[in-house]
Amino acid sequence: MPFDFGFVVRNLPVFLDGLFVTIQLSALAFVLSLLWGLVVVGLRRSDSAPVRNLAAGYIQAVRNTPVLVQMYFIFFGSGMAGYPLSGFVAGLLALTLQNGGYVAEIYRAGIDSVSRRQTEAGLALGMLRRQAFFIVTLPQALRRVVAPISNQGVTIIKDTALVSTISVAEMTQAGRLLADRTAAVYEVFFTLALLYLLVVSIFSGTMRLIERRVRVLA
User: Fold this and answer.
1) How far is CA 191 from CA 26, 104, 145, 182, in A?
2) pTM of the predicted model as reported, rounded to 2 decimal places
3) What are phi and psi of 119, to 5 degrees?
4) CATH number of the domain to which 23 belongs
């Protein structure tokens, strides 16, 4: 049976509605993961051993359990606790908590790659250790981690498809419902693949431009 382009055109508004939700969820999860990763890496580098161990345990827990399981745990667990969360919020929390753990490790690798002499130079100029970290070390570390953070962003975009399992009307959920109603499975999932490819390509291209920009500024 030939590919029905007319079907795709007729149902384009359905795909675009799902695309909007996917972009919204991806953008929020990416930004929150970057911020949460900073918090986690700060705890990971704390002077307090219990705090460091707690942060390390958190990173291991979120990195070694599937994000889908974490979504179910938050979505159904919040209902059992008497504070039910919407599928969108539960999915956003799960994506942020897991990817924040990965981002924290990316930050840590970037920070460790900066020579300690840089910090010592800042201290010699009269900076406090915290000032030396935020003014000298962290900016250099962030320039070095743009590429791995970009890869993590791509993972976030693709993992948004999993929130369809908790009834969030993003692209995959919209496509599944459309396929169930029309049986045009090939057309639906071919279109979804193209839309994901488009979103990931735009994001990756933007991050490459940022990476080139920070290299020029370095």
Assistant:
1) 19, 34, 33, 14
2) 0.90
3) -65, -45
4) 1.10.3720.10
